Amino acid sequence: MPPKPKQEASISSPGNVYLVFYNVFLSLGWLIVLIQTLHHLIYEGGSIKGLWESTSTVLKIFQTLAIMEVIHAAVGLVPSSVAMVIPQVTSRLVILWPILCTVDKTHSSFGLPMLLIAWSVTEVIRYAYYFLSILKHVPSILTFLRYTLFIVLYPVGVTGEMLCLYAALPTVAKTKVYSIAMPNALNFTFDLHSTLIIFALLYIPVFPMLYMHMFAQRKKVLGGKSKKD
C-alpha cells in the first residue's frame, strides 16, 4: 500500500507536471508537421514544390523548442545524458536554421520530405511515450513503436539531412552567408561552407554511436531485461 501515495506524489510533482505539458505540447506540434507534410504530398501528387512553405512555420517552432531537452538533462529533470542529447538537438538545429531556413535550393531537395516524415513520426511517438511514461500508462504497442521504428526512420532522417546539406553547399560557398572574413575588429574568421563539411563528416563517427545506443536501449526494454528504462 505505501508505494501508491508515493507514486502519485511523484506524478503530481511540479517537475513532472511541467514535463507532461511539455511532452504533450511537442507531440501535438510534431503531429501538425506530419499532417501538413502528408497533406501536401498527397494533394500535390507527391510534388515537393511548396512543401517547405506548408510546414516551415510549425517546424521552426517545435524543432527549436527541443533546446529545452538539453536544459532538462543538464538540471537533472530527466535522466537523459547531456552528451547524448546535445548531438541530436544540435544536428537538427544546424539542418533547420543555417541550411533549410537560409538556402532556398534545399526546398526542392528530395531530402526535405525524407527528413520531415522521419523527424515528425519519430517525435510524435517519442514525446507521446515520454508523457505517458510519467503517467505510468504506456501501451505496449507504443513501447514497441518507440524502440523499433527508429531502425528505419533514423537512417532515412539522416539521409534526408545529408541530401539537404549537400544541396546547400554550392550556394553557401558562393554567397559566403554567415561567413566572417579577415581582417576585422575581432581578428576572427569563420567559414560556414567549411564548417558544414566538417559537420557532415562528424556524422561518420556520431551516427553509428547514437544508432547503436538506440539498439542497446531496444534490447533493454523489449528484451525484457529492464522494463523500468
Largest sheet: none
Mean pLDDT: 92
Q: What is the structural class?
A: mainly alpha
Question: Could you spell the SSE succession in H and E letters?
Answer: HHHHHHHHH
Indicate the percent of residues in helices.
over 70%
Q: Quickly count the helices.
A: 9
How would the blueprint of this fold be written?
Elements lengths: L2 H9 L2 H30 L7 H14 L2 H8 L7 H19 L10 H24 L5 H7 L3 H26 L16 H31 L7
Put the structure in a nutshell:
With 229 residues, this protein is mainly alpha-helical. The chain has helices spanning 3-11, 14-43, 51-64, 67-74, 82-100, 111-134, 140-146, 150-175, 192-222.
Notes on the protein architecture:
By secondary structure, the protein is mostly helical. The protein has nine helices and no strands. The protein starts with a helix and ends in a 7-residue tail after the last helix.
Features:
9 helices, 229 residues, disordered N terminus, 0% strand, globular, disordered C terminus, mainly alpha
